[in-house]
Write a structure and sequence with these properties.
The protein is built from 14 helices and 16 strands. It is of the alpha/beta class and 379 residues long. It has a 10-stranded mixed β-sheet. A two-stranded antiparallel sheet has the order 2-6. Strands 9-11 form a two-stranded parallel sheet. The chain is globular, with a radius of gyration of 22 Å.
Length: 379
Amino acid sequence: MIQIEVTTACDLNCSYCFRNGSAMNVSEKVIEKLAGCDREYVLYGYGEPLLNKNLKRIAESLGGKVILSTNGINDVDGIVEVVDRIGFSLDSTDQNYLARTRRGSNAGKIIDNLKKAGDKAFIEAVVTEESLDTLNGLLNLAAELEVNLKLTNVIAPDRWIYEKAIYFEGSKRLIELAREIDEDFIVKVIHDYSKGKGRFLEKYREIHRMAEKEGYLINLIYILESGGRIRRAIEAEKKLGELRELGSELGVEVDVPKFFGDARERNCPYENSIFVRADGKVSSCMLFSRSHFEFVNGHSRRVDEFIIGDMNRQDYDEVIASLSSFERKRREMSTFPWCADCSHVNGCWYVENNQDCYVNAPSCGECLYSSGIAKCVFG
């Protein structure tokens, strides 16, 4: 699969978008080199594809299955016939909510375009604490239009957005192991440790032994400090489970994200794919395509761009060859630690330097896509 950012121009201002830089369109030369190289192409990125006036010609020339992701406010009349599927970004049917989060979006225009796209359409929605109660309206719309619904958690660019997130990055199994302890537990452990023995110290060691036996690290302090986040994640998991069941009754397939991580159950949805930026430079995935800041595991971290090639001066096969080393790593995600379970994640030198303690640079140790907390448009 090849993901192509056909433009960096955008006519919305979304509160959780990492977009930066000036507007530009992908060149004809790059498209010519990519045409026929794969069976599937996804047209999306840090821009609105329909703002590229050559989009129809691009889609026609690629020679494979084409999936388009759009913000939905531009007319799709000219593009529906040349793509296989179109995802429309619509987080809520509540226009007031859209005005706060996707400034410039318009539910009415998006619904009109959904109708034009017919059975090629599906709805993509980013879920936060604020939008949870509006999802039934979105499901009813999907049922009315006979389209499916794909939901994802937000990837936060800052603390303000992070506080609206409804997931917990730590492994869910570890929460079960720690369910009998309270907020004073660590203080009691320290008191026992000073004496060299005690039931709280033994319980602490027992939890660590059980986690290690099952192949986990455990960050007890993070779990104890995150009671509110964990409760929100449990509630969201239940609500979206009910939404999926209701969707099944209405004939709507509702794809929901996970709300907890799991160090032992990770995979890369971008495996065997590349992300081609509008300037022709190539990365392993959209998140590594540009330097930006994310807020994850209770801290801000800088993600440095990871460029493995340039379609302006290289052929496709050369670019793929240069990705081979990293491709082997992401094929087996256990080659990256799951940082949320590590007691050293906050203040970690490796994380601060875009590395990890397994000597990976770049690292996927905090990637919400690998855990299923965030979902891909094509997954």
